[in-house]
Write a structure and sequence with these properties.
Elements: E1 3-4, H1 6-16, E2 21-24, H2 30-39, E3 43-46, H3 52-64, E4 68-72, H4 76-90, E5 95-101, H5 117-121, E6 127-130, H6 137-149, E7 156-161, E8 169-170, H7 187-199, E9 203-207, H8 209-213, H9 217-227, E10 230-233, E11 248-251, H10 258-265, E12 269-273, H11 279-282, E13 293-298, E14 312-315, H12 318-328, H13 335-358, H14 366-377, E15 381-385, E16 408-409, H15 419-430, E17 435-441, H16 442-448, H17 452-457, E18 462-468, H18 473-481, H19 497-503, E19 507-511, H20 517-529, E20 534-539, H21 547-556
Parallel strand pairs: 2-3, 2-4, 4-5, 5-7, 6-7, 9-10, 9-12, 10-11, 12-13, 13-14, 15-16, 15-17, 17-18, 18-20, 19-20
Antiparallel strand pairs: 1-8
Helix pairs in contact: 1-2, 1-6, 3-4, 3-15, 7-12, 9-12, 10-13, 13-14, 14-20
Length: about 550
């Protein structure tokens, strides 16, 4: 066995695991960068902020459904990783991050940038560890990849003390991780679920991140067709099937539309697939069909009955569980009539929304922008969502429609602003043949604008659509609902995002009139085809939100 350093062993391990690129800022981990450059074909993506590497890895993990890798520096470099790791944990994404800590020889003695990194990252990861023996490096890396992918996927953090990383020792050749291991539900649970389905008159499917991660879209569509069931998703489950499917009815909770909520409220059976049914999806339990039976499918036994007690629980991979369930179903009655009723409701709602979006008003209404993005970019477009108030329109089907399965990158439950403005870079590098659009508010864009240069440097043909209301619109809307003064939510000196983007090598377009929207998007798409990122800054009407967003807030917001 040859004597090598942990840094070289890590470079070799990442290559063996099929990592195509790593994201971050090289401060102290220069040895990792050197070994990757010398001994692998892995690309190194230089970010402008220590937080940004994890943001790129987060979005890349979503679209590839595979582990992604980011690196950082000691002390504040590690704390800057934490927000992204928290978001990856909430979104169930296999992001592995690494940083070098202070030398073991000075541990606890007040060394420069000393931090108890494992304690800091443990609450926001599936596993946080420190390599204390250089000979264990291959095991730690393989274990990190196994844990990141096992069961409910999630992030892992590794600390390599500076002195340990430079010690050359004999190490066994790297053996890649076992990859994602899948399990099936118990046969008795499948039989019980099939029996319950046989009695249902209006079943619905409710798909979360687990259905998306399992790439279970074909099975979801097959079950929906077999049952005549509406397909709803959480934000994390969006994209499990194309929203052009005749049984797709949008999202739940905060993101209901009138048609979706009407059908949802009449359900007598809920089949949840890969969702913990968290607050944004259920309104903290406020949104649930009265007296509906409940089947819960999840690969994480800890998610069962977390927020709603099921009548039948099936623990296993979503795709395998649906396979078994489809095979066990009896002959069902009433499917054709139910399907006809559902598609009639859906078609009427699509027509109403199309008419609504065709109206051009000044100031610009965001619904028009969403429809224009669909019209201009079309199929093979990955939508990357931010989390300001105005850009929530991109979550509301069918104002924006995910036209192809897999082409959607939402925030996790933490909704850390700026993550996906930055993450758009990771999406494009991972999916170079796809068109990539990020819809964001001006608040999140200002938190991420240092990475415009990264996108230009990497020749990422991406479009940021900035819905600009010169404010933190969502907090301001809450102030309005609660009759509070609008303090510290308006940008009295607004950033010139067009000038900032151009100064960093991007193309940029300002839009102030509704008739300019579609032309600006076409110009952006043309720039993208040349490998140029483009920012389209659209001045929008303030506090113009989807109807259910307004109803939800009026029902749930009170003083404070």
């Amino acid at each position: 066995m040859p004597a090598i350093t942990p840094w070289k062993a890590i470079a070799q391990a990442l290559a063996a695991e099929g990592i195509a690129r790593i994201y971050g800022m090289p401060g102290n981990p220069l040895h990792l960068v050197a070994y990757i450059t010398e001994f692998t074909d892995i690309d190194i993506i230089l970010n402008r902020h220590e937080h940004s590497g994890v943001a790129c890895a987060f979005a890349a993990a979503r679209v590839t459904r595979k582990p992604q890798f980011a690196f950082g520096n000691p002390g504040p470099g590690i704390t800057n990783l934490a927000t992204g790791m928290l978001e990856a944990h909430s979104a169930s994404l296999p992001v592995i991050s690494l940083a070098n800590g202070v030398p073991m020889g000075t541990d606890g003695r007040g060394a420069f940038q000393e931090l108890y990194s494992v304690g800091h990252l443990a609450p926001v990861t599936k596993w946080a560890t420190r390599i204390v023996d250089p000979a264990t490096t291959p095991w730690v890396i393989a274990r990190a990849f196994d844990i990141a992918q096992a069961g409910r996927p999630g992030p892992v953090f590794i600390d390599i003390p500076s002195d340990i990383g430079l010690v050359a020792v004999e190490m066994a050749d790297y053996r890649p991780s076992l990859g994602r291991r899948l399990s099936r539900p118990e046969a008795g649970d499948v039989t019980a679920a099939a029996h319950l389905i046989g009695k249902a008159r209006r079943p619905i499917l409710w798909c979360g991140i687990g259905a998306y991660s399992a790439d279970a879209g074909a099975k979801v569509a097959a079950l929906a067709e077999r049952l005549g069931a509406a397909v709803f998703t959480t934000p994390g489950g969006r994209g499990v099937i194309a929203e052009s499917h005749r049984l797709a009815m949008g999202q739940t909770g905060l993101y209901f539309t009138d048609a979706g909520k009407t059908w949802f409220d009449g359900a007598d059976l809920v089949i949840s697939i890969g969702s913990r049914l968290e607050e944004f999806s259920t309104g903290g339990g406020m949104y649930w069909p009265a007296d509906a039976a409940f089947i819960q499918i999840d690969n994480d036994p800890h998610a069962i009955a977390m927020n709603q007690r099921p009548d039948v629980a099936m623990v296993g991979d979503a795709a395998l569980a649906l396979d078994d369930l489809l095979a066990a179903l009896p002959e069902l009655n009433g499917v054709a009539a139910r399907t006809e009723e559902l598609t009639g409701l859906r078609d009427a709602w699509l027509a109403e929304v199309a008419t609504d979006c065709a109206r051009h008003e000044t100031p610009i209404r965001t619904r028009q922008v969403m429809a224009a993005i669909n019209a201009v970019f079309g199929n093979d477009t990955v939508m990357v969502h931010e989390n300001d108030g105005a850009d929530l329109w991109s979550y509301y089907w069918p104002y924006y429609r995910v036209l192809d399965a897999g082409d959607d990158v939402p925030m996790g439950e933490q909704t850390a602003m700026d993550m996906d403005v930055i993450g758009t870079i990771g999406v494009k590098l991972s999916c170079p043949v796809k068109k990539v659009v990020c819809v964001t508010g001006d608040g999140a864009a200002q938190m991420a604008m240092m990475e415009f240069a990264t996108a230009a440097e990497q020749r990422c043909g991406i479009t940021w659509v900035v819905l600009n209301n010169r404010a933190f619109g969502w907090p301001q809307y809450v102030q309005i609902l609660n009759n509070k003064q609008q303090v510290a939510t308006d940008f009295l000196v607004a950033a010139d995002l067009v000038a900032i983007a151009r100064a960093q090598g991007c193309e940029a377009i300002a839009v102030t009139r509704p008739e300019e929207v579609e032309a600006a998007l076409r110009s952006a798409l043309a720039a993208n085809a040349r490998g140029r990122p483009c920012l389209v800054d659209i001045a929008i009407a303030k506090h113009y939100y989807p109807d259910h967003f307004v109803a939800h807030h009026k029902a749930t917001m009170s003083g404070g």
